[in-house]
Amino acid sequence: MRIDVVTLFPEMVEHAAGFGVTGRARERSLWQLGVWNPRDCAQDARGTVDDRPYGGGPGMVMLAEPLAQAIAAARDAQRAAGVAAPRTIHLTPAGAPLTHARVIELAHAENAGYVLIAGRYEGIDERVVAREADEEIAIGEFVVSGGELPALMLIDAIARQLPGALNDADSATQESFVDGLLDCPHYTRPEMYAGIAVPPVLLSGNHAAIARWRRMQALGRTWERRPGLLEARTLSQEEQALLAEYQNGGRP
User: Fold this and answer.
1) pTM for this model (two decimals)
2) Is 56 exposed, middle or buried (0-12, 13-18, 19+ CB in 10 A)?
3) For 85-98, how does the pLDDT look when each residue is reduced to its tens digit (9 = 90+)?
4) In whole angstroms, what is the distance from residue 71 CA to residue 87 CA?
5) What pLDDT is attached to residue 170?
6) Longest CA span, the chain
């Protein structure tokens, strides 16, 4: 898999993509990274990439021409790497909310390659979005200073799903949202910390009881914190019983 990021801060992307699971997956050649600075495609010696918005208002808007040329260069690099049809994604709060299901689709698409547009300022010229973007994705319902952090979050979410990225392959199957629920709480040594003990069931060695407890905690935590996730799925009779037990303070 190859991912190219069009950004005014290529060093930021390069540096952050070198750490943790994302960096390890890159070292293992599970994915490749390219970065493209629209300033390198600017039409003047100053490297101008923005201008005042038509209609007035605060801030600046990224110019269409340098951005479009940087996107074209990224696509050419994708094709040179063997990606037949690279997909261009604009990171923006106006996009469709990113979900775990969409991450899985992106991670496991055949011969996948992505060009991520990381905008800055007040945004990018809408004509670039209309002409170049295949889809728009929002990381959350909030605004940050540019698209670099959302792009890095999307890269990390995709990279950790690539086969061989995680040292324990089961990790990716037991995370939040994999089956539409939040993850259960986790504990490690010592058994007692700040007067709080590890739940006895986790020390029991009874794998069936542990799995049951973890499922109940995942259901209960989702009910408490993200009830909309439960409304979007059909609970089995066993899950309904586990949730009722959680709501009853752990008593059947």
Assistant:
1) 0.91
2) exposed
3) 999 999 999 999 99
4) 11
5) 62
6) 73
